[in-house]
Amino acid sequence: MHITNIIIAGLGGQGVITASDMLADAAFRAGFDVKKSELHGMSQRGGSVTSDVRFGDKILSPMVPFGEADVLLVLEETQVELNRPCLRNGGVLLTPDCIAPGVLKNKKSLNVAMLGCLSVVLDIPKAHWLDAVHAHLAEKLHRLNDEAFAVGRHATTS
User: Fold this and answer.
1) Helices 126-136 + 16-29 axis angle, to 10
2) Of 1, 10, 107, 128, whose CB is crowded by the most CB atoms within 10 A?
3) Arithmetic mean of pLDDT, 107-132
4) Nearest C-alpha neighbor of 8 from the set 65, 86, 75
5) What is the per-residue pLDDT for 156?
């Protein structure tokens, strides 16, 4: 029974929780059992925020066991070393360096661009990702975030 463990980390206001909601939604749409948890810390004041997302055939706990994250997706460089011990040996680290400076039309869409990077690593159809993004954002933001998602996918494949 394969379980995929992902940790998303960043600072309050960066959309860590929204990104983890979208990831969980995309995995659910793909037919996986999904569990998620989050740790807000001092997030309202720009402090650390992490969210664990686990999916597979059957998930019993929402928490990624320490040192067993398959993917660590970080939205803020200062959070890389703080969370690196959560990543398993051979796991994938995705950081904002994946996205070239100035490419995003709105820097608030970094979380969705990073999900685009993640989508290349995971076996979840692109349509499920976009449906999940649309389900969690206002319609007026769909085009901007579709473009951000595409930037992330392109950045990871090039």
Assistant:
1) 130
2) 10
3) 97
4) 75
5) 79
Give the separation between CA 63 and CA 25, rounded to whole angstroms.
17
Q: How many CA atoms lie within 13 A of 131 on its CB side?
A: 12
**What single DSSP character describes residue 103?**
-
What's the alpha-carbon Rg for the chain, to the nearest Å?
14
Q: By three-state DSSP, how is residue 56 classified?
A: strand
Q: How far apart are CA 110 and CA 124, in angstroms?
A: 20
- Please check the confidence at residue 44 and state whether its pLDDT lies above 60: no
Element (DSSP H or E) covering residue 88? strand 87-94
pTM of the model: 0.94
Give me the residues paired with residue 82 across strands.
none
**Which of helix, strand or coil describes residue 47?**
coil
Residue 28 has φ and ψ, to the nearest 5°, of: -65, -45
- Residue 78 dihedral angles phi and psi, to the nearest 5°: -65, -15
For residue 95, what pLDDT band results from cuts at 50, 70 and 90?
very high
